[in-house]
Specification:
The protein is mostly helical. It has eight helices and no strands.
């Protein structure tokens, strides 16, 4: 049970890696303008942890990914402003649903960007349709995260929610990775930019 090859050891190793990645994410995204770039790298590192690769394997992203990521960064910053405007008002269920949808859409975009070679508009379209088709794996999961976050704010500070974000992202990847690979893996092999 406590061997190096055991499941318990693997779970503890993944938790330690997620905690260290989250610490780097928290430090790097302290100025909010860097949030899209750090979110892209956080998704990359969480994918490496999920696929049992070395943590910092292929950390340097290709020029093709960066070309597609720049407009995506603008979408993420607009989403961040929208979330802030929703949060300064009293948040009801519809506001919570909109925040969860924006969060799920941005995470789907970054995962598809890192996993597949698609044209930019195809990337956005596939992220949107995937998010709607697998509503329970994307938006409902984000609603659950936000519900836990709003409850946790009353007992802790916002920093606890930021610390738990990589764990949530790992759960998101764990639930969606095989579905993404089955849905888009075969269709995308011959796709060129």
């Amino acid at each position: 049970m406590f061997s190096v090859d055991g499941k318990f050891y693997r779970i503890l190793t993944n938790m330690m890696l997620l905690f260290s990645v989250n610490f780097l994410f928290t430090l790097a995204s302290w100025p909010l303008i860097t949030l899209p770039v750090t979110l892209l790298y956080l998704c990359h590192l969480v994918l490496n942890i999920y696929q049992h690769k070395k943590l910092f394997a292929k950390l340097r992203l290709t020029r093709k990914i960066w070309k597609k990521a720049l407009p995506t960064f603008a979408i993420t910053l607009l989403s961040l402003v929208s979330v802030y405007l929703l949060l300064i008002n009293k948040v009801n269920f519809i506001g919570l649903f909109i925040i969860a949808t924006l969060l799920a859409f941005n995470i789907c975009i970054y995962l598809l960007l890192l996993l597949f070679d698609m044209k930019l508009m195809q990337l956005y379209r596939m992220a949107f349709f995937y998010m709607l088709a697998y509503f329970y794996k994307t938006i409902v999961l984000c609603i659950g995260l936000l519900f836990v976050a709003f409850i946790a704010v009353h007992f802790f500070t916002w920093i606890i929610i930021v610390i738990l974000f990589s764990g949530y992202l790992y759960l998101f990847v764990w639930l969606n990775f095989n579905t993404l690979m089955n849905s888009f893996g075969q269709k995308n092999k011959g796709s060129k930019d």
